Structures are given as C-alpha cells and as structure tokens.
Amino acid sequence: MACSAGRSANRGGRCANRRGLGDEAARIVGVSSVYVGPWRVDLEWREGIARLVSGAALARAVVEALEAAGAPSPASIGLILSHDEELAELNEAHMGKEGATDVLSFPLLPPEAYPTHPGRAAVSPPTTPGPAAFALPPGRRQHLGDIVVSVERAIDQAEQGRGGQTGDVRWDARDELRLLVTHGALHVCGWDHAEPEEEAAMRALERRLLADPAG
To answer: Is residue 124 in a domain?
Structure first.
C-alpha cells in the first residue's frame, strides 16, 4: 500500500536518508528534467529498472495530478524509479515498516499549502492554501517533494492481479506504474486514504486522471 512519509522529518529539505543510501542497488543510471508548463519533474532511473513508460509520459502524469490537486506553481518535484530493495529500506527508515512497498512520497510542504479536497474536512478543519514553506528568489521553483516508485513491484502487482491500489486489479504494468506515480503525486499534495471518505475521493480522482492517459 502506498504511503506518505512523515513530514516532520522532511520539512527542512529533501530526504537526506533517501539521497544518501549509497549502495550499489541504488545507483542512479539515468537523470533528466522534464518541463511541462510551470512544472519541472526531475526523473531518476535506478540501475536495471525497466523503462515501461517514457519519462515524458510519467512527467505528464505527475503534472496532471499536481494540477488537479491545486499545487502551487512554478514548482519542481522529484520522481525516482527504483526497485523493491530501495523501497524496503525507505519503508523501514521512514515508516517503521518491514518489507517493500510500491510507492513512497516525501512531501516538503504541509497540507495547508494546498486547497482543501473532498474528504479532508472529515480529518481536519477546512483550510485555505497557505504560503510556500520557504522564501525564494524571483523565478525560482519551489520544490514540492519526492516520489519513489518500485517499478519491480508495479510489474509484479499488475501480473498477479493485485494492482489498482485495491489489490484486485489485473491490467498492464504500464497502467499500474502510471497509477502509482499519480498516487504518489497526490500524497505529496496532502491527499491520503486513512479515512474512508478521503480514500473514496482519492480513488475517484485517480480514476478520472487515469481515464485520460498521459501518453
């Protein structure tokens, strides 16, 4: 199940533990930045990761989720395409859970930086978008956070019929990967699925976004 890593450990900057894994399994073999309107998506591909979907298409999926969630712009966001081993390390370090997961999000802004969405009022009082967390020079992009996806797990879940975030969908691994990327971007924007009402709203938004393929 996808999760959003605790904000208390990440507000001061990008996740140092994730960036500092340093082992061979986490080697970066491809780095690129894709610009879509006011957004920059910084893509990192780990060694040996299958490129099921083009970086441009994944970046568009991220941007569609950011726009739907009302994320402040101009801004940048990181997307790391990795494997179970790295996700297991991050899951233990930041969520206190053993074993790999499919996607983890590391938001840098508090939920109050984004518009209130359906279901969130059931968890906390409605808020209006707040200011960016940091004062930036003119023309600089606010970094919203990072998304780390296990492509290995996306393939396995799709093939085994355990996809769709509900655990009972059998479809193409490319669709599963796009879903995980979309799901992770929504987590960065303060969406969650801990409460039934908010989960239903999040699933509905994901279905709408996936119904219009990003490429």
So the answer is: no
Q: Looking at residue 174, which CATH number applies to its domain?
A: 3.40.390.30
CB 214 within 8 A of CB 178: yes
Residues spanned by the domain of 33 = 3-117+139-210
171 burial via Cβ count (<10 Å: 0-12, 13-18, 19+):
middle
Host H or E run for residue 120: none
Cα 167 to Cα 102, 170, 174, 176, distances in angstroms = 12, 9, 16, 11
Q: What is the pLDDT of residues 123-144, one digit of tens each?
A: 444 444 444 445 565 667 899 9
Task: Give yes or no for a contact between 45 and 81, defined as CB atoms under 8 angstroms apart.
Answer: yes
In a domain, 150, yes or no: yes
How far is Cα 79 from Cα 76, in angstroms, rounded to an integer? 10
The total number of structural domains in the chain stands at 1
Using a 10 angstrom Cβ sphere, with 0-12 exposed, 13-18 middle and 19 or more buried, the burial of residue 99 is exposed
pTM reported for the whole predicted model: 0.81
Asked if the bond preceding 74 is cis, omega within 30° of 0, the reply is yes
